[in-house]
Specification:
27% of the residues lie in helices and 20% in strands. It is an alpha+beta fold and 496 residues long.
Length: 496
């Protein structure tokens, strides 16, 4: 079968990520605008239907991301990892890698086949990367055949798009890489997006490049204040300094619509989920504090990090979405220094801010319905219906994309809860992670029961939850269980 998404669709998707019809050029406008129109309930013309012949589940959502075929992969049972050598790869494999690095956008098929014969499973990471960026059927077939030979997995049997099942196995095996892997990955990734080049420049970074993959969109490296409508090459555009309106002007948003409520100092703001699903990042000032607010749609996690000096930052940080993922978690970076941050922990993991040891403090984000949030906080503001940028936002941009489980490879999962179960997570002062299944916790609190684990006690706020530890409020946020548990595997889990 042809490469899923056919990658023409991915190109259209990255353009559609942020562009309105006025932002697209003549060559790209037809496909991109039709994709965006479909996401907003419009009609797609017949010509576009013919061009986009791949299955419906691979159509891009309003953010420009596509539903990856790895969604159907089971990550609960994997065969044993293959034995791997240590030290440098052998001379023949090194020669093949060098040929591939010379033209990673159209890799030499003989060199790719040589990797499959190498008997060194560590180069499966390279084959995974090549498959991810296979823009032609013959490139995809060559890399998939090589990976099948080397891994012993029947990748075509596991899924129509081999990148998902292959990478799921590599992550689950915790397969080591080989000396020089990062340079091969640099060549492959930067041949597609040169904006990622600075991320590879820090030899001392804490980025695990094995687990870093492409999320289907390009880097958002627009200067602060530039219109998020202007993203012609296709990115997930941050919303900077969004316009806020009083609650009484928020009737455009349904009462049962989900908001992410943030209270800092004397200011309370509701961020509608549909707007956050399109932008996935906000830079703003709330309660006199400078914040960055990433929303990882794939992880179901909205977080707030203080970027001012009081919150561990430097006041100059501008967070952006890189277009990269780490185990299905968005990779964010600081536009000012090109420093990469762990989106779940707020820790700088590359660049000058890693050298400074920067770890950003978090604020609580409450996931609530709009009606219950404004009832609990009548003085709240809400992001304007057009974001302050004149844009129209569909109420359901993702169209159920994440309803059936993770759509990118994540490896093994913690089976104490379902992968997509929502949990409220807290990190204690001593670093201990604690999580509460959100629905069960709300039910218990509504029934008058106490909800406590590890010294953390929950309370309701609107339709959402907040946390205290030893009588003091502590930052918390919701996330899918697979995301929280893979970044905090030693989590204490409350049981109803």
């Amino acid at each position: 079968m042809p490469v899923r998404v056919s990658f023409l669709l991915l190109v259209l998707a990255v353009i559609a990520a942020a562009c309105t019809p006025a932002d697209t050029d003549d060559d790209a406008a037809g496909g991109a605008d039709d994709v965006a129109a479909e996401a907003e309930g419009g009609d797609v013309d017949e010509a576009t239907d013919e061009a986009q012949t791949e299955p419906a589940e691979t159509e891009p959502d309003e953010t420009g991301q596509t539903e990856d075929p790895s969604a159907e992969i089971s990550s609960t049972s994997f065969p044993p990892a293959p034995p791997t050598p240590e030290g440098p790869v052998d001379a023949d494999t090194q020669a093949a890698l060098e040929v591939i690095m010379d033209n990673p956008g159209s890799p030499d098929r003989d060199a790719v086949a040589a990797l499959g014969r190498s008997e060194d499973p560590r180069v499966l990471w390279v084959l995974s990367d090549l498959i991810r960026f296979s823009f032609q059927e013959f490139d995809y077939r060559a890399a998939t055949d090589a990976a099948t030979e080397l891994s012993g997995l029947d990748l075509d049997e596991l899924d129509d798009f081999s990148w998902g099942p292959l990478t799921d196995h590599l992550i689950a095996w915790d397969l080591p890489d080989f000396p020089g892997y990062v340079e091969v990955k640099r060549a492959i990734f930067t041949s597609f997006e040169d904006g990622w080049e600075p991320f590879f420049d820090d030899d001392d970074s804490n980025i695990d490049w094995r687990l870093t993959s492409w999320g289907g969109v390009r880097i958002d490296d627009r200067p602060l204040g530039e219109s998020p409508q202007g993203c012609p090459e296709g990115c997930i555009p941050s919303l900077d300094e969004p316009e806020l309106t009083p609650a009484e002007e928020g009737s455009w948003y349904p009462d049962d619509g989900i908001v992410f409520g943030v209270q800092i100092g004397d200011e309370t703001v509701a961020f509608p989920r549909n707007i956050m699903e399109v932008h996935e990042m906000v830079n703003a000032t709330i309660g006199g504090r400078r914040i960055a607010m990433p929303y990882c749609t794939l992880c179901g996690a909205a977080q707030v990090f203080f970027t001012d000096t009081e919150g561990g930052g430097n006041g100059d940080i501008v967070m952006r979405t890189s277009g990269l993922l780490r185990r299905s978690n968005k990779v964010m970076f600081d536009l000012t220094t090109d420093s990469v941050f762990d989106t779940f922990t707020g820790e700088a993991i590359s660049g000058p801010l890693l050298d400074e040891g920067m770890v950003l403090e978090q604020a609580t984000v409450v996931t609530s319905t709009w009606a219950e949030w404004r009832a609990a906080h009548p003085d709240t503001t809400i992001v304007a219906s057009d974001g302050g940028i004149g844009r129209t936002y569909p109420l359901d941009p993702l169209r159920g994309r994440d309803d059936d489980g993770p759509i990118f490879p994540i490896g093994e999962t913690d089976d104490r809860l379902g992968v997509q179960d929502q949990v409220v997570g807290i990190i204690l002062p001593d670093g201990t992670p604690v999580a509460f299944p959100a629905e069960a916790a709300r039910t218990a609190l509504d029934d008058g029961e106490a909800v406590s684990e590890g010294g953390v006690t929950l309370a309701t706020d609107g339709a959402g939850l907040t946390a205290e530890f030893e009588g003091e409020a502590v930052p918390s946020h919701q996330a899918f269980w697979f995301a929280w548990s893979q970044f905090h595997p030693d989590t204490l889990l409350w049981e109803a």
